[in-house]
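pasting input
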Amino acid sequence: MTPAMAEQFVNLQRLAPEIALCIFGIVIMLADPFMPREKRRALGWIAFIGALVALVGVHMTAHSPGLAYSGLINNDAFSVLFHLIIISAAALVILGSFDYLDREGIQRGEYYALILFATAGMGILAGANELLTAFVGLEMSSISTYVLVGFRRRAPVSNEASVKYFLLGSFATAFFLYGIAMVYGATGTTRIDEIQAALQNSLSQEGHLPALSILALGLIFVGLGFKVVVAPFQIYAPDVYEGAPTPVTALLASAPKAATFALMIRIYSVSFASSSDTWFWVIWISAVLTMFIGNLAALVQTNVKRMLAYSSIAHAGYILVAFAASTEFGVAAVLFYLAAYVAMKVGAFLVLAHLGQQDERRLSIQDYAGLGIKQPALAACFSLFLLSLLGLPATGGFVGKFFAFQGALDVHSSHGAWFVWLVVLAAINSVIGAYYYLRVIIAMYFWSPNQDYVPTRVAPAIAVALVLCAVLTIYLGILPGTLHSAALTAAHTLALH
Amino acid sequence: MNLPFILFFICALLAVLGAVLLIIAREPIHAALSLILVMIALAVLYLLLGAEFIAAVQILVYAGAIMVLFVTVIMVLNAEAEERTDFSKIAKWVGLPLGFVLLFAIAHWLYRAHVGPVVASGAGIPAHALSTWDLSTELFRHYLFPFEATSFLILIAVLGAMILARRDE
């Protein structure tokens, strides 16, 4: 094997998950026209196998850490762990989609192909070591999700959500792109590691950071803040999450958020580490706003799907608390939180995907009155996810919050006191959140059963997905050590200050 | 006051003017024509920066192919003058001032970054003109990965357009 061939082989190996996802996506696209309508469900299984193959690919990349494609892709432990989270989320969503699509009469191969392509894009986003590469990954995931949100074409609310998401999303992406241009103007490079060196250099030579780099930080925060849904860019989220087909909402609330946080950590904590005093305030204010807006608005919702949308805004705020710390422990906390969050959020939305029934008309809290008697297993599952979102001990959500707050409290910088305040506000928010999570549980167990609600049998595929989410939520709550040490190792490879 | 300096101001102003017209024009076709003005002005700006190839591509692709597509779509759809609904109060009283704040913030930072004098003096232009050779070497060697990934991006966009345009079965 010539050296050039060997290099190409290593490149491909370090990109194995994305390649697997894209190949399976294309296979589904090509097979779709030849499948009779009633057999299209098989395409879903192909997509699920594709996601599993991609997970094997992640295993391969884990054994070959390093840069790929002339340094544009950084396949470090950090990227590997994020790939694991993103692809697992996609696999669970695919598993939870089969019966939903059958019920809504939209069983099509394109749905699964788009999920796989979106996941590949998110993988690129998590592993990108260069901003233009990250941009392409971001767009791959965004454009796929714009279409997925509008997949229930007969429902006006789904179309509205799709148009809203597309227009605002494109606008936000433009800000991100403008930010990249400013970074290039300030430093002459778009590579994460080189930006860091260039900024350090100008800091030591001129005593201050280039003016353009500060502008770039702001513009990039607009673009990425939109994707992770933090205030003040959260306005679109409730409408989009409510209008999207529920399995797509499960995907939207989990995987893109994780992938974008990966990029934000690389940009803010690595590239712009030297200007952390500047961006700390932006993140601090945004975190506080995000938590309060998410939790207070969730209090008054009667539609459970919309309530969970607001709850996911609030959770982005908790993640920002750990993110603001920007220490190794803080980054590990973000990673752990995202893993726990994906398990409980995908689980909760998949429960709704089943309970919503035809045309998603059963989403009000009254519909779930007495569910604990009618469908004890499903109600128990839903309660577990809600309690984990609330942050009850022995669930993944609690441990995630614990690490996140611990990470913020451990910071010994000049902002130390402000971190204490941030954690105090986050704790107050957790208490506010308890009200609306517990209200659903109380409705399920203590309200008199809703007579005109006829429960339907939980299909095997969705049951398997729910059990996996539940097991993961409990596992992370009781034995968090394995993932947390892996997260710490991953954070260590970023070489933070 | 040399020729490139004067040319820069004329084209920069034309680009801004075209962009503003693009937004306020009520007839879609007028908006499309304003966009051509922006594209051509930008092409001249690229030329002033010593990027001949990018300038040519800007004309060919944007002012040429993409604009033909826009105009064709407008004709096929037979789009008429847009009907303006009342702006939301928030957009008018909060959004507009904030937009100006953003504009001045960006202008302020750009001014502080001393970009202007560098561009005007021509110091930003590389010593030897950036040839097509250099560009393709960068694109197909160094930036091969995003280039290839873009083809997937386009595939996704085509797939999405197909789904949204198809009639229900």
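fyi Chain B touches chain A at residues 105-106, 109-110, 112-113, 115, 141-146, 149-150, 152-153, 155-157, 159-160, 162-164, 168-169 (CB under 8 Å).
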